[in-house]
Amino acid sequence: MNKSFPFKQKKFSGWSTLAGAMLAYGCICGDVTYAYGVFLPSMNEAFGWPRSALSGPYTLFLITGGLLGFLITGGLLGPLVGWTIARFGARKNVIFGNVFAVLGLLGMAQVREIWQVYLFFGVMGGLGLAFSEFLTMTTVINHWFIRKRSLALGLLFASGGVGGFLLPPLIILFISGLGWRWAWVCLSLVHLLLAVVLAGILIRDTPESEGQVPDGMTTNNSFENLRSSGQGFIYSTSADWTVHDSMRTPALWLLLILFSAVLFVHNMMTTHQVAYLRDLHYSPMVSATALGLMLGTSILGRLISGILGMRFDGRGLAAVFLGCMALGIVSLLNAGTIFFVYLYSILTGIGFGGMIVLLPNVMGAYFGRKHFSRIVGWTTPVVTLVSAVSPILAGFFYDRTGNYTIPFAAAAVLLFVSIVLAFLARPPGVPGAAK
For the structural domain made of 231-424, what CATH number should be given? Predict the structure, then answer.
C-alpha cells in the first residue's frame, strides 16, 4: 500500500533561506563587485598609480570569480565549486567564500604596493565571488523551490541590483568621513555581519535536511504529485538528471548558447556604451545616467521574470526578453536623440534582467535539483570564456574602424538569432535516452 510519508510539521524554512541568500548576494554585489570603482579615484590619488594599473585587479577579480578559465583558478573553478556544493552543501560555500571576501576587503585597507591590490581584491575577492555568488545561490533556490522557483530567483537577483544601488553611496560616506583605508575596514565589517553571520544563520542547504520538502508541501506524495503534474503550462521534470545525461541533450547546449549570447552582449555594452555615447557628443552625465538606468531597470526585469516565470513557458518569455535586448541595441545604434538613448537603457535593462532570472529557472526545471550545481558548474567555463571576449572584440573593431557600428550591429543580430534558438530549446526527454 502506498502511504504518504509525513514530514515534520514546522515552519517552512525556504523563505528565511531566501532572505539569507538575498543578504549574501546583495552584499557580494554591493560590497565587492561594485565597490572597487568607488575606491579607485581615492587610491589613484593616494599612490599615483596609472588607471590602467588599477584596472588590472578588477579584471583579475572577474577572471578569478567567473571568467576563471584563463588561469588555474579560472572558469575551471565552476566544476570545483559545483563539486564542493554537492559534497559539503551550499551554506558552507556561502560562509567560506564570504570569509575570503572579508579578508580581502580587510587586506585592501593595508595595501602599499600594487601587487597587494591584485592579491587582496583580484584573487581573494574573486574567490569570494566564485564560491558564494551565482552558482551557489541558484543551487540554494533550486533546492528549496519548484513551483515558486522563478519568483524566488527574481527576488534573489533583484537583491544584487539593490546592493549595487545602495552600497556605493554608503561607501562614499565612509570615504569622505573616515578616509579610504578605514572605509575598506568598515566595508569588511558590514560584509562580515550581513553576508557571513546573518546569511550563515538563515541559509539551510536542502528541505530534506530540515524535514521539509520544496515549496512548503507537507507530504512526500504531494511533492511527487507537484513534480509530475506539469504545473499547467509550466514544465518541470520529475527526474534528476546526471551531468553525463544532461550534456547529451540539445536543450542544455541551446541554453548554454543563450546564456553565452546574453552575457557576451551585456559585457560588451556595459564596457563600451559610455564611450560610444561620448563619441556621439552626449555629456558625461547623460552617458553615465544611461548606464545607471540600464542597471536599474534590470531590477525591474528580474522581478517581472520571477513573477511571469510561474505562469508562462520559459521559451516564450526568453523570446520576449531577448527581443527587448535586441531592439534596445537597435535603438542605441540610432541614438540621434536622447529619447533613443534612454529607450535603449530601459529595453536592454529589462531584457537582461529577465534573462538572468529565466535561464537558471529553466535549467532547474529541465534537469532537476539533485545534480543542478554540478551541471551548471561544468557549463560555467564555456559561458564565462565566451562572454569575456566581447569587450576585447568591440575594442578591436573600434580601433580598426573608428566606431562601434560593426560590434553593436553584430550583437543585435546575435540576439535576434537567439530568439529562434529559444523556441528550439524544448524540454529534454527521459534521462539516459538522449542520443
Answer: 1.20.1250.20
Name the residue ranges covered by the structural domains of the chain.
Answer: 14-214, 231-424
Report how far residue 329's alpha carbon sits from residue 129's, in angstroms, rounded to the nearest whole number: 29
CA dist 42 and 70 (Å) reads: 30
Say if residues 310 and 226 touch (Cβ distance below 8 Å): no
Q: What is the DSSP string of 323-386?
A: HHHHHHHHHHHT-SSHHHHHHHHHHHHHHHHHHHHHHHHHHHHHH-STTHHHHHHHHHHHHHHH
Q: What percent of the chain has pLDDT over 70?
A: 85
What pLDDT, on the 0 to 100 scale, is given for residue 229? Answer: 45
CA distance 369 to 141: 10
Highest mean pLDDT among 5-9, 42-46, 56-60: 42-46
Percent of the chain whose predicted confidence (pLDDT) is above 90: 29
Whether 14-214 shares its CATH topology with 231-424 is answered yes
Residue 91, all three cell numbers: 551554506
pLDDT of residue 3: 44
Q: Which three cell numbers stand for residue 17?
A: 533561506
Q: 3-state DSSP: the chain helix, strand, coil percent, rounded to 5?
A: 75, 0, 20
Residues β-bridged to residue 68: 75
The CATH architecture assigned to 14-214 reads Up-down Bundle (1.20)
Q: How far lies 316's CA from each of 27, 322, 417, in Å?
A: 32, 10, 14
Nearest alpha carbon to residue 317 among 329, 328, 309: 309
Mean pLDDT of the chain: 82
